[in-house]
Every structure is written in structure tokens, then in C-alpha cells.
Design a protein that fits this description.
This protein is mainly alpha-helical. The chain has a domain of about 55 residues. Helix content is about 75%, strand content about 0%. It is built from 9 helices and no strands. Helix 1 packs parallel to helix 3. The longest helix is centred in the C-terminal third of the chain and has 27 residues.
């Protein structure tokens, strides 16, 4: 089979088309249209093959267990904590979260979730807790005192 050349049907065979078709055959466990040695000469197939191999390799139970054990080590936890405290990482995460929560599908999901009876009863029960009431009362008093002070400054300033 020649790629980029006219074949018996009179049309050009696209490399990406062949790669996509053979990748789907690999995923379904069917035999390939083109020999693997030929497919590996295409960078797009090689990248996809490596990605699929890594995914399958990391899904093994022993690989998952190793990763879980590694992430429980103190030095790994310390590194992750230090990484997440970096200003550029915090800024990136904040920007990503802001963009994520502005998506229409996320807004619709949150709205639908908050309309559920379980969510409403949980929110109501949470707001009835004494510590939450005390916190809100203190916050509101501080807020109104701050506003009152601002008005005094405007009046006399």
C-alpha cells in the first residue's frame, strides 16, 4: 500500500487516515491493515502507540500499588506540598478554576445539583449549626462596623 499515491480507486490515501484506522483496530484487538514495522515509521502512530502503551502499563495493579506507595512517602508529600505553594502554580490553578467554573455545562450542573432536595436540606442543616451562626454574626457585625466607619470618613473627610 502506498501512501500519498493514487491507488486503484483513483484517490489519495492519507497517512493520518491509515494511522487512525489502525489505531482503532489495535484498540479493538483486530489485525492491522498495514504491517507494524511500516506504521512505526510514521511519527503520529509512534506517539499514539507510546501513549497507549504507557496507559496500559500504568493500569496494571502492581503499577498502581507502587504509585500509591510512592505518593505516601514523606519526601514525595513534601515535594508536592512545596510545588503547590509556588506562586506560579497557585496562579495557574486559580486561573484554571475560574475558567472552569465559567463553563456553561459546569454552571448548569451546579445549578441542577443545588436544586436537589438533599443539597437543600444539607445547606439548611449546615447554616443552623451554632458555630456557623456565630461566625456569620461576627462577620456581619464587622462588615457593618466597617461600612459605618467608611460613611463617617466620607462625611467628615
Amino acid at each position: 500500500m502506498l501512501f500519498g499515491k493514487n491507488v486503484s480507486g483513483g484517490h489519495m490515501i492519507d497517512e493520518m487516515e491509515v494511522v487512525k484506522r489502525n489505531l482503532s483496530l489495535v484498540e479493538r484487538g483486530l489485525p492491522l491493515d498495514v504491517p507494524l514495522s511500516v506504521l512505526r515509521t510514521y511519527p503520529s502512530f509512534a506517539k499514539a502507540e507510546v501513549k497507549a502503551y504507557k496507559k496500559a502499563y500504568n493500569q496494571r495493579p502492581e503499577a498502581k500499588a507502587y504509585k500509591k506507595a510512592y505518593n505516601q512517602r514523606p519526601e514525595a508529600k513534601a515535594y508536592k506540598k512545596a510545588y503547590n505553594q509556588r506562586p506560579e502554580v497557585k496562579a495557574y490553578q486559580k486561573a484554571y478554576q475560574k475558567a472552569y467554573y465559567q463553563r456553561p455545562e459546569v454552571k448548569a450542573y451546579k445549578k441542577a445539583y443545588n436544586q436537589r432536595p438533599e443539597a437543600k436540606t444539607y445547606k439548611k442543616a449546615y447554616n443552623q449549626r451554632p458555630e456557623v451562626k456565630a461566625y456569620r454574626k461576627a462577620y456581619n457585625q464587622a462588615y457593618y462596623q466597617r461600612k459605618k466607619a467608611e460613611k463617617e470618613i466620607e462625611r467628615h473627610g
